[in-house]
From TrEMBL:
Molecular function per GO: lipid kinase activity; phosphotransferase activity, alcohol group as acceptor
Protein name, UniProt field: DAGKc domain-containing protein
Matching Pfam families: DAGK_cat
Single GO biological process annotation from the record: sphingosine biosynthetic process
GO annotations of cellular component type: cytoplasm; membrane
Taxonomic superkingdom: Eukaryota
Amino acid sequence: MEQDQPESQSVIQSDRVKINGTVLPLEVTGDGKLRWMDEGQRCLTLEKEVLGFSVDGSRIKIKAVVEKGGGICCVGNGGHLVRKSFVFEPLSEDSLRLWCQKLRDYMDSLGRPKRLFIFMNPFGGKKSAPKIFFEDVKPFLEDADVQFTLLETKYQLHAKEIVRTLDLSKYDGIVCVSGDGILVEVSWPRFVVS
């Protein structure tokens, strides 16, 4: 007697696709796993590892963050995280559209921020804030297709002035790339009477 799979493990999308020139089965499950067989079982967890995806012609490029040295697999080795891409090619235009729709629907269901306002203090963090933002933060935001407005502060209390008049409804969050000074400036400024 066959048992039904729990909904969290049900297959949302399954098809044969080209991966590194070889046609292989690929599936995405209700619990957010993108699985394929390529020299063993491999998978990405959409919620924790996948930042986003893009389409280039007939190929889908999954942009992920995985453990260094661990490659793309469900079981990590406790290493440092690195950005990595995985590319697959659906075998038809209909399949391409369906994969894009299913991936987009699942990614959207995660409720991740799509628009951020970023304050960067060029002198914050021992003057390392610009390097941290441009080398570490910005690439992740781009991979995750997060739109952002970057404002470089010019003087002390500049962020506080800006956030008092900022239309917060346009953003899903505020990010501070700095030492702790800007964070103090933007914390609860509308509720503080000065």
